[in-house]
Amino acid sequence: MDKTKIENEHDVYSLIRPIFPDARLEVGDDAGYASVRYDIVLDEYGMVIEVKCTRENMTERKLREELGSDSFHYEADHLFLFIFDKVKLIKNPDAFEKAFRREKHGFDKELETIIIREITF
Fold first, then answer.
1. Is the dihedral of CA 28, 48, 112, 46 positive or negative?
2. What is the reported pLDDT for 107?
3. Which terminus of the chain has fewer CB atoms gathered within 10 Å of its CB, N or C?
4. What is the pLDDT of residue 22?
5. How far, in Å, CA of 66 to CA of 46, rounded?
6. Residues of 96-117 as b/e, b for ≥16 C-beta within 10 angstroms?
7. What is the DSSP letter of 73?
């Protein structure tokens, strides 16, 4: 059986592009202190999708730090953190997703986290 591989933001972009043809990949922006690079931007919806793929030499703490930084610096109405946990790094996916979920009225943006471990079509 053929499998759809998700290795990076380009793979996620190729899945999103047919549904959202105006999606843009790797968009740079000035965040004041330093520049940022958004993985996928859907301007029409004020949405940014940040893609993270876990790897053997990554720790869960390092992943949390990267996502915390992205959550703070990224300018968007809606920020989706899409994590492909291919090495099963995240010990408690439900708690992890909950920790990185915010509603816009209590935060400057809506924040949603989606963790995928393996996709087979």
1. positive
2. 79
3. N
4. 94
5. 21
6. bbeebebeeeeeebbbbbebee
7. H
How far apart, in whole angstroms, are the C-alpha atoms of residue 17 and residue 92? Answer: 31
Choice between 79 and 3, residue whose per-residue pLDDT is larger: 79
26: left (phi over 0), alpha (psi -120 to 50) or beta: left
- Model confidence band, residue 83 (pLDDT cutoffs 50, 70, 90): very high
Cα torsion angle, 86, 87, 92, 96, sign = negative
Per the document, the length of the chain is: 121
Report which of 21, 28, 9 is spatially closest to residue 80, judged by C-alpha positions: 9
Those residues with Cβ within 8 angstroms of residue 85's Cβ, 6 or more apart along the chain or in another chain? 54, 93, 115, 116, 117
CB–CB of 54/86 below 8 Å? yes
CA dist., res. 45 & res. 66, Å (int): 24
